[in-house]
Amino acid sequence: MIKLYGIKNCDSVKKALKFFKQHNIEYTLYDFKEQTLGCDTLTTWLEQIPMIQLFNSRSTTYRTLKLKELNLDDEGKKEWLCKENLLIKRPVIDNDGKIIVGFDEETYKKELL
After folding, report:
1. Which of 1, 25, 29, 76 has a CA that sits 20 to 30 A from residue 97's CA?
2. Calpha distance 19→29 (Å, rounded)
3. How many CB atoms lie within 10 A of CB 99?
4. Confidence label for 65 from pLDDT (cuts 50, 70 and 90)
5. How far apart are CA 4 and CA 92, in angstroms?
6. Where residue 99 sits, what CATH number does that domain have?
7. Pairing state of beta strands 92-95 and 2-6?
8. Nearest CA to 56 among 20, 102, 16?
9. pLDDT tens for residues 44-56?
10. What is the pLDDT of residues 83-93, one digit of tens each?
11. DSSP β-bridge partners for residue 99
12. Residue 2 φ/ψ, nearest 5 degrees
């Protein structure tokens, strides 16, 4: 079954959920505000996708924590992702181990249908 990671009130997550419903795709939602994602999962994701694709440097959380001032390298970013899941770009789709970050309808059609 497909796993969708994000937060319910995120616009991109809402688009992904709408896509899943339109295409009768079963999924499990993991809400970052209700469940903490472990570092082991993040490490697995980062084996497939680059940090720049997963780390959300445009988020409110990023600005609030003033992370730009820290000039983080990838290891520093990974540490922050482990501590603060809201820094993860959303949604993250885990389709039997294949990771998709963000919402792109064409990618979803190609990878999920």
Report:
1. 76
2. 14
3. 18
4. very high
5. 6
6. 3.40.30.10
7. antiparallel
8. 102
9. 999 999 999 999 9
10. 999 999 999 99
11. 94
12. -75, 140
Instruction: Determine the residue type at 5.
Output: Y
Count of structural domains, the chain? 1
2, 4, 10, 86: which one is catalytic? 10
**Confidence grade of residue 22 (pLDDT, cut at 50, 70, 90):** very high
Q: What percent of the chain has pLDDT over 70?
A: 100
CA distances from 28 to 16, 53, 95, 98 (A): 12, 22, 11, 15
Q: Is 10 a catalytic residue?
A: yes
State how far the Cα of 55 lies from the Cα of 62, in Å rounded to an integer. 9
Provide the residue range defining the domain that includes 107: 2-112
Write down the pLDDT at residue 46.
Answer: 97
Gap between the Cα atoms of 99 and 44, Å rounded = 9
**pTM score, whole prediction:** 0.92
